[in-house]
Structure formats: C-alpha cells, structure tokens
Amino acid sequence: MRIKKLLLAIATLTLVSATPVKHQFTAAEQQQISISTPGLFSRSNAFNIDLDALKPNEYSFPLPVGKATLRKNNVVEITTKDGDAVKAMFEGTVRLSRKYPDTGYAIVIRHRNGLETVYANNAENVVEVGQHVRAGQTIAIVGQRGGKFYCDFSIMIDGKRINPTAVVGIGSHRLHRHILLCEKQHNYINVSTIGEKVDFDDSKDFTTEDVFTKQSTYKWNLEEMKKGTWAYPLPGAKVISPYGGRRRHSGVDLKTKPKDEIVAAFDGVVTRSATHYGYGLCIVIKHANGLETLYSHQHKNLVKVGDKVKAGQVIGLTGRTGRATTEHLHFETIFKGRRFNPNLIFEHNSRGLQKATLTLTKNGGITQKRN
Ligand SMILES: [Zn+2]
Question: Under a CB-based contact definition with an 8 Å cutoff, are residues 153 and 118 in contact?
Fold first, then answer.
C-alpha cells in the first residue's frame, strides 16, 4: 500500500517535470491575477505550509529596503526609490507577467507550497510566463504613480488574497517562523497558525499601538469606556470557576450552553486562532493598550489570524475542546505576557465593567483602584 503510494508520487512528480514549462498555464491563468490553483484542494480541503522549514536564502522581502504598509483588501504597499528591483519572495514559476491598464505591469508567481505572490505597479517586468525564479531574484523594476515609487504586493491562496501578516512581518520584513494551516471555506481561505505567536506590533495599521512609547504609566478608567467599545465575553454567562485559587486557575470559566456565541471583549486584532494543547480551539486578541484576551475550548472559531475585530463581535462558539469537562468559555486577560484576574476589569455578577481605574505600567504592572 505504502509502496503503491510512493510509486504514484514518483509518477506524479515525473509527470510534472516532464510537462513543458511554458505550456503549463492556461490562457486564463496567464491573463487573470485572481484565479484558483488547479488541484490545490482536490485531495483535502486543508493543507499546511511550514514556513519554519525555509532556509534564509529561500525567502526574500519583495523590496528589502522599502517601507511597507498594509492597506485595505490585504494589499501591502511597499514604497521605495526610483529604479529599485522587485525580488521574488520564494522560489516558484511565473504564472502571469503582463501589463494592465490600471495597475501597470504585474507578476504572479506560483510557489510549490500552495501560495501565490503578486507584484503589481511595476515599471517593467524582467521575467516571463513559465520562467522559474529563485527567492530574491530580481523580477521587476518598481513603478511610479503620483510621484511615489511603490510595489503593490499581495499573497494569494487559490486565487484569494490572504492576510499577508500571517506570513511576514510588515514592519520587520521578517518571515514568520510558524506553520500556516490553510483551509478552504465556502468563499474564502481560512489561514490559522501553529507555532510561533505572530507579533503584530510592527504593523501600524493594526490597533495595537503601544501607549507606552510616550508614557510609562497609563490610567485606564473603565467607567469612561463608551458603549460599544467593550463587551462581556460570554453574554448571559455565570462563573463556574474563578481565577486563581488552589489550582492556580489561569482564567475564569464562564458557562451558558453549548455552541453559544463568544464575543470579543474589546476592539483588537486576532493574533491566534488555532488549537493549542489543553486549551483546545483557542483565540487570542491583542488590544490597543497592550492588553490581550484569550478565549478557549471553542467548538468553533469564527475569526482568523490578522482579523480586526470589534468589541461585541462574535468570534467563536462555546465547546469543550482541549482539557475541558463541560462546554464553557475559559477566558483569560493578559498584560505584557502576564495573566491577571479578569475581575480587575469585569464585574461578573452584572456582566459589566468594574467601576474602577486601572493603572498599567510599561514593565507589566497592573493595579486597580475603585472610583
Ligand atoms: Zn478554565
């Protein structure tokens, strides 16, 4: 059985390499930027990409000295200087290289790991369809628009743009050392991560602006929080196990009913949406003031890494994945990597905020004073 599979794999490989490279893309694939990748989800509706397995020379930021900004629709604008060379992010085969009336010259490279990378607004392309390129190889010269030199860069799976911050740090230009789990949903690709936690701090577009760059302490008067800027994570729940105690419980357990809607406590960015040991299906959201909230044991997660969420937005359904004996939400509040009692913020009986002011300090201190 194993040998049969292996032989089949070898046969498939031979078939692929024997196909004349120039003709491996259909006319539509050579014309359209967003087009599904044949066979990508034919065997399974999910696959993994281990970014940590890449060697340093197997990755390049498209414009290594450029300044990258994440714009709407998961496009990264990388601004740089006149004449700069655009580099291929990973090795792969050029699927599209042509001029569009609105975006100038564009290139799409199909990579063996299932990703496609898109480089648009080029002044000139220096590769052609079917050409194999190495990571870091020059593929185009950056183009100009409105006096600004930039490349519009995006990453696609099956013709759909994914959040590029799941793959690279927008500010740091670094490849994230983790595993991407890519799942096909009805009309989008869900990307979650396993391994190294994604640090979104380097992207100004996210609401993780650190209040401690200007000051060393931050007073957070919970009573001044306006309606809609906060939410009790599991509306209608009662506490079945408090924080701390003899078993040093790292959060508070909240219970309503199975598959009930869990909501984001505050606005923020999803930095984790994956299975994590005893936590089962887990979500971590990073908030503007350095605070993070964690939600676990979900039956289902409804957000993906990189999603911006609003306070009160439904992010998952209660379940008992991981180490859980009943359907509930295990909710944690974390500041500068340290867990603290969620009741410094929430008053569980009223499911409201405490009438208190929290003092957060740059080095991770958190104290509560009643108003
Ligand atoms: Zn718990």
Answer: yes
